[in-house]
Design goal:
The complex is a heterotrimer. Chain A is mainly α. Helices cover about 70% and strands about 5% of the residues of chain A. Chain A has a two-stranded antiparallel sheet with strand order 1-2. By secondary structure, chain B is an all-alpha fold. The longest helix of chain B is centred in the middle third of the chain and has 26 residues. The relative contact order of chain B is 0.06. Classes of the chains: A mainly alpha, B mainly alpha, C mainly alpha. At the B-C interface, helix 1, helix 2, helix 3, helix 4 and helix 5 of B face helix 1, helix 2 and helix 3 of C.
């Protein structure tokens, strides 16, 4: 059953791809929609069956498809493992993925690459499911790479525009940098374990045999991989550019798949990170820095999708704070709730963009409250959720993370988290007010939104409003059911309820302050941010990080490439090779001269040989 | 002492004939040197108390091979301008003589160091040779006879004039 | 008498003949040099026959004389054939098998 969950999207991707290539005249055929949506839907149903079974007996499910590599102690099976963590992951990935697929059917209607899109989309789903359900690090890496590939394909989906190709390349290459760390970590792990099995279970059982230094190195390298996939400092620059893809792609990348892979990976290796709290702290600091940094950039951004992209990065920063401080289940809980409201936000944004004929600047929108009531309501819920206003989903998960930071006495991280929460509320409501409440231009015709685009919004709005209660902790009268179900090796610090209530009150106040500030500034006459102060200029230009990378990495690389292409390759390498071949030719010519065809010459050659041999023998025998 | 002086005389004839063979420009003169060398060789065979081989050497090598050779040379009857021009003949001989000297030395030394005395047995006479030839060596003997036959046929085919072959096959 | 001078004679004859083969271009001379080399070999066989007191070497020498005869027939036939074709006795004129340096 597990293998079916994974294989089904791949099969349908293959089928749709083949169909698209062989029948180009099938532009918007029903079959694309049917197959494209059916495969994630079936995967979702199967995932829930697995989840229900897990509720019943709580056992981890294993399934081996076949042995892939079998070289001595290096044995890799194409095998799947569904423990509590991965079951939770696949459940919401397939659920939200299916909703996004349905939404995409409406969003992509009429696009000439409709079939291709669904093929890539299913591939994306399959890759992510493979990543999550993998039984060993190598299979996880396969899924990891496939996610990178399919994100590349989808970001560069509108490949007619060169900028989109650049964005896709950027995403792909930055992910490569991260993958480099990941693959070295896997190799190190394998070498260190000396062949005592290479499934997650076996690694977890033998992890204590490794030295702390080795573990630290592996943990850091793994996190480099996570940085790339989950867009953390310093490998985040691909994320805003990845908005070049169609909006459902952004929704899928940001909500259910891809970017959460890094967090999932850290949680998956929690048995490793528990041993090395220093690396965990480093991860938490990176997460905090990313959260703040992204929030600042989102505050002055005016492209609706880029705001959401930065908000994703910021929320991912929260997740890394959680997993870095050992609160793995809180991190995964935030992944879970975030998936709902972020998918909702992106789908809402997509709906707005479609309705306004591909307008993406929030300051050119405005007053859509009446025109798009469904989108308005659902976006409102999602914005409340991401801002951490109770009782919406984001509040509980974000609160759990801030609590973890506070209780583990990392007050600096906690303060950054709190400030970021304020910024989050501010920039999210800035977006919301500018789009829906502020004055908009009167003369405009809105495009009709199909039902397939609005209905998933409502469903997700319901989810965003309620899923938080799954992780209700004791202070609010719950039992942290979600976190307990995951049964990850959390580092728990006790906090008294009064302290907790105070912290909650503080974070809610901060969020409301952000909301209020946004209302004052943007609810009526929103103004696009102008770079009149140096700080603003710095933030609007995204801290010049892209330019910095350009100068530090891209330019030298290009220069080096040019050097190699114009000097080293033709003048040195080619010259060497050509010289070698020429020398062989010359040698051949000179030896050909020996073949005169004249008997006497051959006889002379023989005589010379015999003479030399005789001389040698005479010397050896000591006769001369 | 008589043996040694005989040997020296015969050896001088052989070497002299051989040198004459390889140095003369005219093939006919070479052939005479060759003849002398072969005849003296028969004498050496006799000196080695192998009368049958000495006779065979005279009959076959001198009587057949050398005569055939001289006949061929006369048949060809090459004019002076048809002979190869060899302006550096003696230089070449000198060069190859230098090159060949270690070979000579090696052959001579290796053989003479291995066998330093003749056998005292009187076993190599014509009767024993005949018995050996027709018992242990009968197969090589037959093969040689086939070889001679095929060489004869081959020689006729090769030396024939082209148009004769063409006429007959037509 | 010891076999040593006989061995020396055989080696010397062989070498002189070898020099002839290498340094001369006249086909007849080459042929005769080869004959001399063969003869020197049969001399060695005869010497061995006497040294070892066995008739085998002599028998081999006898067979070798027959081979020399066969070779003579073929070689002379070929010389005549070549002379008819090329009108020369120069061995260096027969160089059809040589490698043309410019098409390498």
């Amino acid at each position: 059953m597990l293998s079916l969950i994974v294989v089904l999207p791949f099969l349908s991707a293959l089928f749709l791809g083949g169909l698209y290539l062989s029948r180009p005249q099938l532009q918007n055929s029903f079959i694309y929609t049917a197959v494209g949506i059916a495969s994630p839907a079936i995967s979702a149903i199967l995932s829930f069956v697995v989840l229900l079974r897990m509720f019943a007996d709580g056992n981890t499910v294993y399934e081996t498809l076949f042995q892939w590599i079998d070289i001595g102690s290096f044995q890799i099976a194409v095998a799947f493992m569904a423990d509590r963590l991965s079951v939770v992951m696949i459940s919401f990935i397939t659920l939200i993925g299916t909703l996004i697929h349905i939404y995409a059917a409406g969003y992509m209607r009429g696009d000439p690459g409709y079939g291709k899109f669904f093929s890539y989309f299913n591939l994306f789903m399959g890759s992510m499911l493979l990543l999550v359900l993998a039984d060993n690090p190598v299979m996880m890496f396969v899924g990891w790479e496939l996610v990178g590939l399919s994100s590349y394909l989808l970001i560069g989906f509108y490949h007619q525009d060169h900028a989109n190709i650049t964005a896709a390349n950027k995403a792909f290459i930055l992910n490569r940098v991260g993958d480099f760390g990941f693959i070295i970590a896997i190799a190190l792990l394998f070498v260190s374990l000396e062949g005592s099995g290479f499934t997650f279970d076996a690694i977890a059982a033998n992890i204590s045999t490794l030295s702390t230094e080795r573990l630290t190195l592996i943990g850091l390298l793994l996190f480099v991989g996570a940085m790339g996939k989950s867009a953390q400092i310093p490998l985040y620059v691909w994320l805003p550019d990845a908005m070049a893809g169609p909006t459902p792609v952004s929704a899928l990348i940001h909500a259910a798949t891809m970017v959460t892979a890094g967090v999932y990976m850290v949680a998956r290796y929690s048995f490793l990170y528990v041993e090395i709290p220093d690396v965990g702290l480093f991860i938490a600091y990176i997460g905090a820095a990313s959260a703040l940094f992204a929030a600042l950039m989102a505050t002055f951004e005016s492209d609706i999708k880029k705001i959401l992209a930065y908000s994703t990065m910021s929320q991912l920063g929260y997740m890394f704070i959680a997993v870095g401080l050992g609160a793995y289940s809180s991190g995964i809980f935030h992944v879970f709730t975030h998936a709902f409201f972020k998918a909702l936000l992106f789908m809402g944004a997509g709906a707005v963009i479609i309705a306004l004929h591909h307008e993406q600047n929030i300051f050119k929108m405005g007053a859509l409250k009446k025109a798009l009531p469904v989108v308005y309501v659902s976006m409102f819920i999602a914005t409340l959720a991401i801002s951490g206003i109770p009782p919406f989903a984001g509040f509980f998960s974000k609160d759990a993370i801030l609590m973890a930071a506070f209780s583990s006495e990392h007050y600096d991280i906690w303060a950054v988290g709190l400030f970021t929460a304020f910024l989050t509320a501010f920039y999210m409501f800035r977006l919301f007010f500018s789009v829906f409440l502020a004055e908009g231009s009167k003369e405009r015709t809105l495009q009709e939104l199909p039902g397939s685009m609005t209905r998933p919004l409502l469903f997700l709005a319901l989810g965003s409003a309620t899923v938080g209660f799954l992780g209700l902790n004791e202070a609010f009268g719950g039992h942290s059911w979600f976190q307990n179900f995951l049964s990850l090796p959390d580092v728990v610090h006790e906090v008294s309820h009064t302290q907790e209530y105070m912290l909650v009150a503080l974070s809610v106040t901060v969020a409301l302050m952000g909301m209020g500030l946004a209302y004052r500034m943007f609810a009526h006459h929103p103004q696009e941010a102008k770079s009149d102060q140096w700080l603003k200029t710095l933030i609007i230009n995204k801290f010049y990080v892209d330019e910095l990378y350009d100068v530090m990495v891209v330019k030298p690389l290009l220069l080096l490439s040019r050097l190699i292409a114009t000097v080293i390759d033709p003048k040195i390498v080619d010259a060497l090779i050509m010289g070698l071949s020429k020398s062989y030719l010359l040698m051949g010519r000179s030896f050909a001269r020996l073949q005169t065809g004249r008997v006497g010459d051959y006889a002379l050659q023989i005589l010379i040989g015999v003479s030399l041999m005789s001389t040698y023998i005479l010397f050896k025998l000591g006769m001369m | 002492m008589l043996e040694l002086s005989l040997f020296v005389i015969l050896a001088l004839f052989i070497v002299g004939g051989a040198v004459a063979t390889i140095t003369n420009r005219q093939p006919l003169f070479s052939a005479f040197g060759f003849l002398v060398s072969m005849l003296a060789m028969a004498g050496v065979f006799g000196l080695l108390e192998n009368q049958f081989l000495a006779l065979a050497q005279i009959m076959v090598s001198v009587g057949a091979v050398v005569v055939l050779n001289i006949l061929s040379i006369m048949t060809v009857n090459a004019k002076e301008e048809n002979l190869p021009q060899e302006p550096y003949k003696y230089r070449w001989i000198l060069l190859s003589g230098v090159l060949v000297s270690p070979v000579t030395f090696l052959i001579y030394k290796s053989m003479s160091m291995a066998y330093q005395h003749f056998s005292t047995l009187e076993t190599v006479n014509t009767k024993v040779m005949g018995e050996t030839l027709f018992s242990a060596w009968v197969l090589p003997f037959e093969i040689v006879s086939i070889l001679l036959l095929s060489a004869m046929v081959g020689a006729i085919v090769i030396a024939r004039k082209k148009d004769v072959i063409a006429k007959e096959t037509r | 008498m010891t076999p040593e001078p006989f061995f020396f004679l055989a080696a010397l004859l062989f070498s002189i003949a070898l020099v002839g083969v290498v340094s001369r271009r006249n086909l007849f001379v080459i042929y005769m040099s080869i004959e001399l080399m063969l003869t020197s070999t049969s001399l060695v066989l005869v010497i061995f026959s006497k040294v070892l007191g066995s008739a085998d070497g002599s028998v081999m020498a006898l067979l070798m004389i027959a081979v020399i005869a066969a070779e003579a027939a073929l070689f002379l036939a070929m010389i005549i054939h070549l002379y008819r074709r090329n009108r020369t006795l120069d061995s260096e004129m027969c160089d059809e098998l040589k490698q043309e340096a410019n098409n390498a």
